[in-house]
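Complex 373.
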Amino acid sequence: MAEIRVDNLVKRFGSFTAVRDTSFTVDDGDFFCLLGPSGCGKTTTLRMVAGLELPSSGSIRLDGEDVTFKRARERDIAMVFQLFALYPHMNVRKNIAFPLVSMGVPRAETRRRVEEAARVLRIVHLLDKPVSGLSGGDRQRVALGRAIVREPKAFMMDEPLGALDAEFRHLMCGELRALHDRLKATTVYVTHDQLEAMSMADKIAVMNDGVIEQLGSPQEIYDRPNSMFVGDFIGSPAMNFIRFEGAAIAGSSSVTIDAVAISLPKLRESRAPGPLALGVRPEQIAIGDPGRTGGGLPGEIFGAEYLGTNQIVTVTTPHGMLKARLPAHVRAIAGDRVSLSFKPERLSLFDAATGKTIRSALHDANMTRRGHG
Ligand SMILES: Nc1ncnc2c1ncn2[C@@H]1O[C@H](COP(=O)(O)OP(=O)(O)OP(=O)(O)O)[C@@H](O)[C@H]1O
Ligand SMILES: [Mg+2]
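Predicted structure with adenosine-5'-triphosphate bound:
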């Protein structure tokens, strides 16, 4: 299969820059997600990698070969889009076989590949049916089949599950990942749905406004967001931000919010007094009775949403609303005054003026891991 290497890619449409100086490498066999909000440049990036759009500058390498100026059909990359353009007058078998027929692949070989793809996608029983009567999920399997039979170097998928309803999308996520584990084909998958990306990707590139804000494994991105944007975009509920005025001191393992010392991973960088934000994941919050477990940040329960095994509790504080994920048995009655404490290990600290992380021991661990491959 293939390694994809993108260097300093830029795409301008007139005076508007859709993709700014983007670089990333997709390792051979990886499932790589481009994740970000609408309009951030995901499709444009994908189309440049696939050869459907010419970059304004920068380069694209496929297995070491510079393909920046090669046309799409010279790149041996298969695309799957959200809007599966099947040929309505052909049955499933002919739809899947279409790229092989147009490439002039011999009939016996075409038949073998189509049936193998249908087996992998579990649509053998549909092969001789017309595509017009198929469900959305089956149509998407046919579209995937058409990409698979080509046995391309890499797959590019642009929100391929976007048109399906939520439950089905979840099912297809599992199937797509299982398919990937069988084929081990390098895949670039575009989505604005962080749950999709988190559940499927080996690596995620979080895009915002034409740039990649962070690139890492789902867990790195979840545990160590390097900007408030990433912390907010990933996770459901999102990361909480406790905004305060204060200083960060390199070597210190705490910050002070309203005279309360909050422990966090040892800081590697300093900041002069100014606006800071403590980033807290919902599951890192514990609530206690202020009379008995004093010393935390004060808050008041606003409401609770029960989810069976746990609950999402909304707490108002002088620094805004926080959402905590707590065991279902924890008492959380609206109006109760509580004391908030935080598990220190994975807290993040941000410079609230720039939105960027203030490096801590955790981020150093991140850098070291990545540095060693
Ligand atoms: N052909 C074009 N001409 C002008 N502007 C364009 C063109 N294609 C894309 N853009 C702009 O570039 C920006 C990025 O578009 P792109 O389609 O890459 O976003 P996206 O991240 O895929 O968004 P979505 O999640 O909505 O699909 C948008 O502001 C879009 O309007
Ligand atoms: Mg798009």
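The pocket of magnesium ion (ligand 2) is lined by residues 42-43, 158 (CB under 6 Å).
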